[in-house]
Each structure stands twice: as C-alpha cells, then as structure tokens.
Amino acid sequence: MDVVDIINDLKSFRRKDIPYSRVLSSMCTSPHPIAVKAHQLFIETNLGDPGIFVGTWELERKLISMIGKLLHKNDCAGYICSGGTEANIQGIRSARNLKRVKKPNIVIPKSAHFSFEKIGDILGVRIKRVGLDEDYRVNTSEVEKKIDKNTIAIVGIAGTTELGQVDPIDELSEIAIEKDVKLHVDAAFGGLVIPFMDKKFPFDFELEGVSSITIDPHKMGMATIPAGGILFRDESYLRALEVETPYLTSKYQYTLTGTRPGASVASAYAVLKYLGFKGMKRIIERCLKNTILLVEEMQKLGFEPVIEPIMNVVSFKTKKAEKIKEELYKRRWVISTIKEPRAIRMVIMPHVNEEIVLNFIEEFKRVIKSINAI
Amino acid sequence: MDVVDIINDLKSFRRKDIPYSRVLSSMCTSPHPIAVKAHQLFIETNLGDPGIFVGTWELERKLISMIGKLLHKNDCAGYICSGGTEANIQGIRSARNLKRVKKPNIVIPKSAHFSFEKIGDILGVRIKRVGLDEDYRVNTSEVEKKIDKNTIAIVGIAGTTELGQVDPIDELSEIAIEKDVKLHVDAAFGGLVIPFMDKKFPFDFELEGVSSITIDPHKMGMATIPAGGILFRDESYLRALEVETPYLTSKYQYTLTGTRPGASVASAYAVLKYLGFKGMKRIIERCLKNTILLVEEMQKLGFEPVIEPIMNVVSFKTKKAEKIKEELYKRRWVISTIKEPRAIRMVIMPHVNEEIVLNFIEEFKRVIKSINAI
Lengths: 374, 374
Prior knowledge:
The first copy, chain A, is α/β, with parallel strands linked by helices. Chain A contains eleven helices and twelve strands. The first copy, chain A, has two domains: 3-29 and 276-370, Aspartate Aminotransferase, domain 1, CATH 3.90.1150; 33-272, 3-Layer(aba) Sandwich (Aspartate Aminotransferase, domain 2), CATH 3.40.640.10.
C-alpha cells in the first residue's frame, strides 16, 4: 500500500473513535499542544538504554525532581512509567520486597482503583479492603484493626476514581509509622490537582509515613500517553526492585518494563515548564469551575452529587444510572457509572470546557426525558 | 517559559543523546517514517477505554490478526503492550493462573533475557535455568529433566538477545505436550525476522505445543515505542488474566496496564501495511547482508563470531570485551558485551546500513590498536 492509502485507511479507523469533546468519563485528555511538540522531538528515544539516551535520561531526572518538589521532596527517587497500574505495582512490589513475609497482604480502601485486584494477582499479595466513612473516605480505625504481622503496606487514595475524594492521608501516615508498614499513596489523578487547589489536603512526602506516591502526568498533567509516575521517598525503595542488566548501557534496572519511551517524558516535562505553577493552577481552577457549573445544572434537573465535589470528579445519584449511560452512548456521549451508591459519574478534564458542559446538559435533558429518569 | 525556549531547552537535552547512526547495541531502531506519521494521527488515543476509542480498538484487533497470520494463527488472541517484559510477564502469568500450584516454577534457557529474573520476582515464580548445547541452543533433554509437578511453563527463545540463536522450539513443543505444561516462546526480537528469512526455523503456533508468543513491533517491526506484542493460542489464556473494570467502557481488562497508547499500535500497523511481506523481507535481507559484511570485516581483523550468525545479532570472542566497549563509548560508538563466552556484541538493526558498518570498522581498528586488543 502507498502512503496516501495508508493514511486514509488509518483515518477511517480514527473517525470511529468518539472525540474527547463528547467524553466525560475519562481521566485522560487531549494532550497539551506543547506536549505533542515535545513528544515529536523525542519520538525515537528509549529510556531503557540510558547510556545511549544520555540527555533524555537527564531530562527524566529533572522531571522527577520537578514533580518531587511539588510533592515536598526534591530529592525523591522514581521514574516515569506506563501509567497508574505499573506505578501501583512498583509501589507495592517495593514494599513486598523490603519486608519478606510468607503471605503478604495490603490494606486498601474499598474506593481504591480496580487495578489493585490485578496487582494482588500479579504480585501474590492478598488485598484486604476496608470500608469508608459517610464521606467515602477510608475508615482509619478499621485500617488499623486490619493490619497484621503479614501486612506489608497500607494504601491511601488522593483523588478516588469514583468520587475524587481524598483519604485522610495524615492519619494513615501516623498509623503507618506506628505499625511500621509502608504507606503507598495512589495520587494518579489527584497528584496533579491537589497541589494547585486553594483548599489544602496533606497527601504527599511532607507526611513522614508516606513511602511512595503514584502520580500520572498523562492524566491531569496533559502529557502524552504513556506517562505514569512512581515516586519513592528515597533510593532504597528502587534498590528493592533492581535486576542486573548484562547487555545494556546501565548495570541495573529497577523499572518494570525494559524499553521505555522518552517521548512522553519530554511531553510531561514540557507541559510543566510551559505552564509553570500558575498556569497549572489556572487550568485546575477552570476544571473546578466547570465542575461546579455541571453540578448546578444537574441540580436544576433534580440530580444530587454523592458528595460535594472535592476536585473535578463528580457522581450523581440515580437508580437509572446504567440506562442513562447507555442512552447517552447511543448518542455518542460517554459518561460512566458507579455501583455504591448507584450513580452516574463524570470527570471534568481540561478538554471539558463550559460549552461542552452545556452541550452535554442539553443532550442529558433529552435522554432523561426519553427514559423518564426523573 | 515560552514555546521557543522550551523547544530549545528540550533540544539541548536531545543533543546529548548518541544518535542511532553510532549505535550497534540496541534492539530498537529509528521508527520507520510511516510509523511516525501514523503515531501522530493517534497521539491522543487510549486503548484502555475501547468504548471511546472504538476505531483504534478495531485497528489493534486487525494488527493482532495480521501478526497472528504471520505466526500461523489468524484467530489467535492477544494485544499490543509496553514491550517484551510485559509480554513475557503476561505469558507466564497466564500459565500460572491456569495451573494453580503452591510453588510454581518455569524452566527457561540460560540464554533467556535478564528480564525473566524480574518476572520471577514479580510473579512469585521460581526460575529454573537450563544449560545450552555447543551452539548455544537450550539443552532439551535437560529441560525435560527439570520439569516437575510445580512447573507451569517452559520457555524457548526465538532470537536470543546475546547471539540471535533460535532454540529447538519444535522439540520444546513436543516436550510441552508430553509433560502437559505451557510453552511460551520469547520471539520479541526474532518474531519479526524469522518469518522473512529463507532458512526456516519452526517457532510459532504451527507447533501445537506453543501456547504464547512475545513479538515486539518496536524492535524489528520499526514501530514507535512502546509497541510490544503478546499473542496467545486462544482466548482462554486472556480470560486467565482478567479483572473487572467498573468505570470503563469495557467490562473486563486483561492487559497489565490500564491506559494504553493507540499511537504505537497505529504505527506498527502502518509499517506492516506499507512494507507488506515483500518489503519486510527486503529489510531483513539487508540487515542480514550487513551482518555478513560486519563479520567479514571483523574476521579480517582477527575476530571470530561466537556462532555463525543466524540473524542480525552477532557476538565476537575477545577477552578485552569490556575495554573495547568502553573505548568505543568514549568515542561515542555504542556496542555491548556478553559474559559467556567473553565477547563483544552487535545488533545490525535497519538503521545500521553499509556505510555505518564501514565507519564503525574504521573506528574499531583505531580502538583495538590503541589498547593492543589483537
């Protein structure tokens, strides 16, 4: 096939995708234009071979320390990975390798991402889920009770997938220190939201019990996919992940994958450099403003949020959640649902501007009318 | 910072990277121009959410069946992943989940990639390494002896990292059937070489014992990073990897990562479509021709290959391997080394054309003279 035919062929597939302008379910978004430019410049780079890609490797070190600074630890250790799942695997794996017990378990909130089930299966770690309080934050006294001699780590969520809620990480930190277990914070989404919010939620390395943090530039960092992040308090956690690398330009490798794109690292770096703290804050504030707009419009239609939104994730109670989702999908609008309580869920990413919120509301009105959802 | 400053900043890092024109150690290469074009078109796509990226998902299905066809199984199951390590993890994890034993082990050749140590650690699977015959192919009678009731899988390599050797996969297939264990073939490199070679090496699904194959488009498929591939004989292997996905447009997820770039999938598809079987064969033949050229030139200098090269990977015996590598690196040329036997190793990727081979030989001559390596 010649180039033109192939491009046309590819475009015919791409056209079947639903554009982000109709997506209110995703924690990813259109990458920032500067991210795309940076990505292009580094398209052939491979961080799996740092002796070849010396500059790209240095760039990754710089990015890690930029994110570390944001999380109150300039000199943290870590790397940019394939996404939240790899980051969570590595956080838990490091804890597991640092405390060898026969039947390791971790204590995590019921609200933790479904991928923790996958992580449990992969790593052979038992997952003990803990209930939530009335605000859907983890019940810390239950966490304390569930910790036993085989517990290698507890997990707190800073920005839950379903509700954008933040667990009381400060209390979890106290517990972790007291019980001598690691505390892994899954801030895949919230890590690049909370630092830019006026209301303060302690969740990062300023809390002494926090050992590792998942924070994904390809979510609220507007980087290209794949750009997840796993940060550790210090190098010793990385050491626990290392294997020897006989044929590479490095001697050891602590990453889960071998070959690793430098392109998305450059993209994440470029966005943070371009926007700076103020620019990020502006974007987060716009997302929060549009979240409030959505809530107000939904309330006019009789839908109440499950909790007062903390960040740009919001769920609205309705028994007809699945039906509403399906009807919207037929009209090429994408939202998602949660089960406890039954609700429809929206994420107000940077691509969801005021106009999209209002367009969505118009379609939503037609949908609820058509299925008598109110 | 403004856009121009950021681009300049990024370029200053990128300039420190060693260009591929001086790299003879990597199993990755500059992506094909059509790969870069395709990548661009799909830059924002996320295969972790197939209900949004309906067309991109369809494209991945098509690519999997194209690769499946090449591997004698049009209707195989699988997906495009982050690379060889994830592919090998998933192959072994699937075998582990299909045969639950308390202390699972796998039997793999000594020549298997170092990442199998990582996989053993991650999955809690014991790695039993088996010796090689005089041609550095796995000793199959030793494989047979090492299989016990806790063995969940055996592994064969089609294109070893160190020498490009191919294990007797047909014999391993017989053993796998006889002993009722899975056979995972790591063809991360060789999977996109062997099908295009005149000499035949049975290694794929045409052998009935083969359960899963790692085959990476971002190596000899000239796709953008990350594009690894894991293929299974049928869907049942994927079922063994699934977890529920409450908030996504799909119900289950069998991939290791959640968010997954569609861009590199599009790139891999575009290269195979553009080149077709004949075009791929032409590129492989050129790589093999340049490998022979390198061998001839090295022989003139008194260096003998460890084995007669099978594909475009070749190692040359020398006790001064490390020293030679270091001296070349000082001059910004990258090769690698192996330990058993002590040798220097080169991979003749598509970017290593005749001119680069000859330039390399010139520098190599100066290096061996400077350190009296001959």
